[in-house]
Amino acid sequence: WQVVRSMASEAPAKNMAPAEVAEVVEFVKPPLAAMLNTFDFESVATETMEPQAWGYYSSGGDDEITLRDNHLAFQRITMRPKVLVNVRDIDMTTSFLGVPSSLPLYFTATALAKLAHQDGELAIVRAAKKVGVPYMLPTLSSYTLDEMLQVRQPGQEVFSQLYVNPERSRTQEYINKLEAAGVRALFITVDAPQLGRREKDMRNKFTQ
Predict the structure, then answer these.
(1) What are phi and psi of 36, to 5 degrees?
(2) R_g over Cα of the chain
């Protein structure tokens, strides 16, 4: 990936060739320790992911009004700290539906993780085990359900997302496979009677 840096401020001569007006600078991915917040990850993703992939991950439907509202709503969440208490030892462990978690967070289902990395959902399964949080396996995954289940470590608990298929027999087969594999919970997506009109995706398909 390359970044083009303008050199117009250096007042090039009128007869200077275009190649001499701009300098191509290779983007260098910063070390993980330099990523201080989620916005840092987004900034790097814009440079390292394919435009179609980043457009899919970052976009919302139509004018993205709901996307912006969700972002603002999350910013309105505040914390009420306890004071005059012993904070030498902090315990952030909790549980989701009886599944222990090292943090009050979990990896939610996100489609097509391979758009970001070749290991896709397999890497997320491994990472979830490493940090001790649950992972919700996506229905629209880059890897098959069997492949995602196979990389679980002993004792690792996972959840699963479900888009109900119009062919109910296929949905039943999917659920049976989850149940046989010991998946603890099923999260059914109910707000997608049709796919959203994602304009970034549409533009990328027209321009790439």
Answers:
(1) -95, -20
(2) 22
